[in-house]
């Protein structure tokens, strides 16, 4: 069985010389050959597609492929999505629906829902994944490319939800503008470029989230959209099983030059009562955010934070978050701290921008003060130290005043991918997953077995 090593180029030197000769000849005979090559997408990195695949006895269906033919040249401005012309503050709903339409256009095919969001299937992909998310116990599974994201507490999704040990899994995609930046960062797999990471205006990132909480326990998950995936038995387990996962949320980030800090965040929640034939459209707008509202600090826990959502509580003092006011459309839901934007999967004491502006590699401060390792260091909710996570940073700014880390422009997938790479490199474990294919699914021939054993 073939095993690919990341740190070594296994091509024989003679092939390299031959390649060099061909390039020199090509350059000599047709002057612009190398310029033409610069236009071609990156196709030679071959980052591993995933870290976990059900054994072939259990699963014989399609296998997830990482969309990694990142464009080498910054896409022309004419490719910018047209919803970027909508005023996101005055017409927040049109903006969110326009963005959703844009995300669905090339990813929702109109057939079996299980075939959707399979970006690598196109001959010339226009949406891209972040590499290096296969690594570690939360790494990508091989059916839909989902990564393990967060636990779900009882009653987090609805008062009737008693299920314990629930978890969220998700897969994110970047449009062609975002793919250009991922390609630049990961152009050289042995030396990722961590400095000066900036996503161009027009970057759209979307992520769909699925839960293993039984859909019968959550009224808004009636008429569910389900994907089968190879996930852990429950949040605390590392043992993978083949399980039904229910769509619950969609996240959006848009690099919009009208946003005061560079990015617009959007969120959608599944409401099966909408009963759309295209079930992806049951994802109804929760709201939009373009800042952290650093002045809003309503008490300690804040009456709006609402961890067990019987009703949705909207905070009228917020100026940089707008929440969908329509209770007939939006199921009862918790939001973020003090009512800032967050989705049902997210922490009720955090918020989209609060978490995302901490993105840096190597990691320093956690994405929420609640995740500080030493419990005595966790600041009081609403204190001055707590509010450090609710300041307004501009895109590309560094959260920690420590220039050994590089900001990843609010992208947590990029920061995680770089951190995974650093961990792998520093662990001295030089084995990595080769491109994982169905024929390799025996436990014995599992190219990841060494990584699994060392975990
Ligand atoms: C407590 C932290 C936290 C909060 C709150 C949070 N996120 Fe994230 N988000 C993450 C992490 C960690 C990732 C990367 C992991 C992954 O996607 O596999 C991520 C990934 C994403 C991605 C994929 C692009 C990227 O950054 O890598 C999008 C889009 C996104 N989140 C949007 C949102 C939106 C919109 C909200 C609010 C509704 C939100 N997030 C709230 C932690 C958070």
Task: Provide an overview of this structure.
With 455 residues, the chain is an alpha+beta fold. The chain has one domain (49-422). It has helices at residues 13-29, 33-39, 92-105, 176-185, 352-356, 384-387, 412-426, 449-454; strands spanning 147-152, 166-174, 204-211, 226-232, 240-255, 263-270, 283-289, 321-323, 360-361, 406-407. The strands form 2 sheets. Strands 1, 2, 3, 4, 5, 6, 7 and 8 form an 8-stranded antiparallel beta sheet that branches. The protein has a two-stranded antiparallel sheet with strand order 9-10. The two termini are 22 Å apart. Heme C binds at residues 133, 147, 149, 170, 172, 205-207, 251-253, 265-267, 341-343, 346-347, 350-352, 355-356, 367-368, 411-413, 416. Heme C binds next to strand 1, strand 2, strand 3, strand 5 and strand 6.
Summarize it.
With 455 residues, the protein is an alpha+beta fold. It contains eight helices and ten strands.
Q: Can you tell me the number of structural domains? A: 1
Most strands sheet: 8 strands, antiparallel
Q: How confident overall, as mean pLDDT?
A: 87
Q: How much β-strand is present in the residues?
A: 5-15%
Bound molecules: heme C
The separation of the N and C termini measures 22 Å
Rg is 22 Å
List unreliable stretches of 5+ residues.
Answer: 1-36, 432-455
Overall helicity: 10-25%
Please state the overall shape, judged from the principal axes of the Cα atoms.
globular
Give a count of the beta strands, DSSP E runs of length 2 or more: 10
Category by helix and strand content: alpha+beta
N-to-C SSE string, H for helix and E for strand: HHHEEHEEEEEEHEHEHH
Work out the helix count: 8
